[in-house]
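--- STAGE predict ---
source: upstream dedup step, 1 unique chain passed
mode: sequence only
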Amino acid sequence: MAITLTQLTSFLAVVRGGSITAAADALVVTQPSVSAALAALNREVGEELLERSGRSVRLSAAGEAFAPYAADVIGLLAEGRDAAREAAAGAERRLRIIAVTTAAESFVPPLMKAFAERRRELELVLEVGNSTAVLEAVLDHRADVAITGQPPTEGRLEALPLMDNEIVLVTAPDDPLARCEPMSAQRLGDRTWLLREETSGTRALNERFIAAAGLEPRTLTLGSNGAIKQAARAGLGVSLISRATVQVELESGWLGMIPLIQPPATRRWWVLCSAVGPVRPAVAEFMAFAPSAVPGNA
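--- STAGE serialize ---
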């Protein structure tokens, strides 16, 4: 078998872009070169890895099985290159962290600061994304560690629990319901619910809660946790959100909290890294350090 890096890179670019055109643009090559690389890869594997779906392409059953291995090969080679450079030049050291928005806007920066004080020679880089993007970045080895609220189900990931992720229902500070006894969700049917964007895990949490309560409320979609907090403070609606995100606002009285008889179950924050291939010392150290360094776990 003589599979080349060009073939694997072209294949993964098509998978991410959804078309040969998008892959060629991303790789800054011609469309015929991408098509030729895919044809050669199909011959080497002995199966058609992609199939047409209208104007786009999608993975075939064989492609679905092959894609994780392709991502691991390309990702591990990139990690190997970085490891070689680090060994040759000790100052060129980097730890790539990716986190979901809610974590990145609350406890991740202090966690990074604490780790940076231990490893001053490391350059820490933070990327922010939705839950799907975070998992994909670690699986594809484009990030070294990830912090997310979704427990991993993928065997190619190593995961450690960080801390509890309590969910609270926020509202305006002068909302009368914020000073009441715990209530059922059904009493909130006339409220507008403030939701994050479509790909947000926080939005999915709110939608599941609303559906389980049998509510059909008005909704207002906002693009960030900051916008959610400002809208709730202004009395535009209510929203379920991680306490870590609103702790300062609740303590200062800028936001109110409506107590619920049956709030969403407390979840966990997780720190993840790839379980495929060698683990760089900096990654192993961060994985060991993070659970003891987040608030409430020290």
